[in-house]
């Protein structure tokens, strides 16, 4: 007889592609079903405090449209302490790309050994159009995945890339609101954008 198990669902795509919104909607769906949900985030995600937030651009400014509370976790020990404390049936994480290799083994244990529903959201590509951190392996272990596309902020075409507009053009991890979604035609590598700005 086949043993029942949990699942791993991943929402992946660029900034402004509604990944966090889809994650929050899934969290709220499970809460309405009276399931115990544990939501966590990386301390590297310094935006919005201890919340997972979905935003929309209104008049050029990012406005919060929905949010859920989340715990900051640094490692497997932090997660397992919360899992045992909350007896969660659903484990939800935003910005998965910020976590280390230990996270891969963790989500497999939660889903396939502890039968927990795992919901994940993250950037699949960085601002250089390269696979971001652990996301390729996270997607490989997913039982279901959704590729989320945005609308290019320049031309309106479907966008799968993240444009970094400010901050340090050499830093891969630099949370903030200085990002846009871009299609391949309109996307510019951060170092090239810095050269363009310097010449203006």
Give an account of the 3D structure.
The chain is of the alpha/beta class and 200 residues long. It has helices at 19-32, 76-86, 102-113, 135-141, 190-199; strands at residues 7-13, 37-41, 51-58, 61-69, 71-72, 90-93, 117-123, 144-147, 150-151, 158-159, 161-164, 179-182. The longest helix is centred in the first third of the chain and has 14 residues, at 19-32. The radius of gyration is 17 Å and the shape is globular. The termini are far apart. The mean pLDDT is 91.
Strand order of the largest sheet: 5-2-6-7-1-8
Shape: globular
Radius of gyration from the alpha-carbon trace, in angstroms: 17 Å
The beta-strand count equals 12
Average pLDDT rating: 91
Report, as a whole number of angstroms, the end-to-end distance.
68 Å
Unreliably modeled segments: none
What structural class do helix, strand and pairing data support? alpha/beta
Q: List the secondary-structure elements in sequence, H or E.
A: EHEEEEHEHEHEEEEEH
Described by strand count, sense and barrel closure, the largest sheet is: 6 strands, parallel
Strand content: 25-35%
Share of residues in helices = 25-40%
- The number of helical segments is 5
């Amino acid at each position: 007889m086949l043993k029942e198990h949990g699942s791993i669902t991943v929402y992946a795509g660029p900034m402004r592609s509604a990944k966090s919104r889809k994650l929050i909607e899934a969290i709220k769906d499970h809460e309405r079903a009276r399931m115990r949900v544990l939501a966590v985030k990386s301390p590297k995600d310094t935006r919005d405090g201890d919340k997972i937030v979905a935003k929309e651009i209104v008049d050029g400014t990012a406005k919060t449209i929905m949010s859920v509370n989340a715990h900051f976790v640094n490692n497997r020990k932090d997660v397992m302490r919360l899992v045992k404390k909350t007896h969660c049936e659903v484990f939800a994480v935003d910005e998965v790309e910020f976590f280390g290799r230990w996270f891969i083994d963790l989500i497999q244990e939660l889903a396939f050994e502890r039968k927990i529903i795992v919901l994940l959201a993250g950037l699949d590509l960085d601002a250089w159009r390269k696979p971001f951190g652990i996301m390729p392996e996270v997607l490989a272990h997913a039982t279901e995945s959704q590729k989320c596309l945005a609308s290019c902020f320049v031309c309106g075409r479907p966008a799968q890339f993240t444009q970094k507009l400010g901050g340090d053009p050499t830093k891969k991890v630099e949370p903030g609101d200085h990002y846009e979604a871009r299609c391949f035609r309109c996307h510019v590598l951060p170092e090239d954008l810095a050269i363009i700005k310097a010449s203006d």
